[in-house]
Design brief:
The chain has 173 residues and is mostly helical. Helix content is 64%, strand content 0%. The chain has two domains: 11-73, no CATH class; 79-168.
Length: 173
């Protein structure tokens, strides 16, 4: 038995099927988490218990609007969403560190008055590249682990590539 999309030639139909499947996966994940939380009594002592719900209009949520509003009104987010945001923050911190290291290297190189200082500046950059490369490797391992927990394929985080990160920071070696 082959891929479900194998016999379909219309790319739009395939994309619609994939979107529907992704939505169903998210819906199922949210419903499982809510059911588990309800079983564990997490909704028993919520603020505003016994009071009418403030139901704002979330036009994109459709039939899931109530579930999303309950989560949002109680400052709760799905664990994989929180972990994804933490990873995006780590990636941004890595990118800032890369740019700062490059700036320090450039400054040392500009301030160098002799061959020895230029060599020291280059050695600094080599050690920074090694340190940052190791940090990127650890981030990529964490990305791989995180992507296994994300129920929606299109929300997975791409691994970092050294050359692309250098280009993003405007670094030309």
């Amino acid at each position: 038995m082959g891929d479900a999309y194998e016999k379909i030639s219309d790319q739009n139909v395939i994309e619609q099927m994939r979107r529907k499947r992704a939505e169903e996966e998210v819906r199922g994940a949210v419903e499982r988490i809510i059911d588990e939380a309800a079983k564990n009594g997490m909704f028993d002592d919520l603020p505003g218990k016994g009071k009418p719900l403030r139901l704002g209009k979330n036009r994109q949520a459709g039939e899931r609007a109530l579930a999303y509003d309950l989560l949002q009104n109680n400052s709760y987010t799905l664990p994989w969403i929180a972990a994804r945001q933490e990873m995006l923050d780590k990636i941004e911190a890595f990118r800032v560190a890369l740019a700062r290291s490059w700036e320090r290297f450039q400054q040392r190189l500009d301030d160098a008055i002799d061959v020895a200082e230029r060599r020291a500046a280059r050695e600094f950059w080599q050690s920074e590249k090694a340190r940052l490369g190791e940090q990127m490797r650890e981030i990529n391992q964490a990305i791989t682990a995180l992507n296994l927990t994300i129920p929606v394929e299109r929300l997975e985080i791409l691994k970092l590539l050294w050359r692309k990160e250098l280009a993003r920071a405007g670094i030309e070696e």
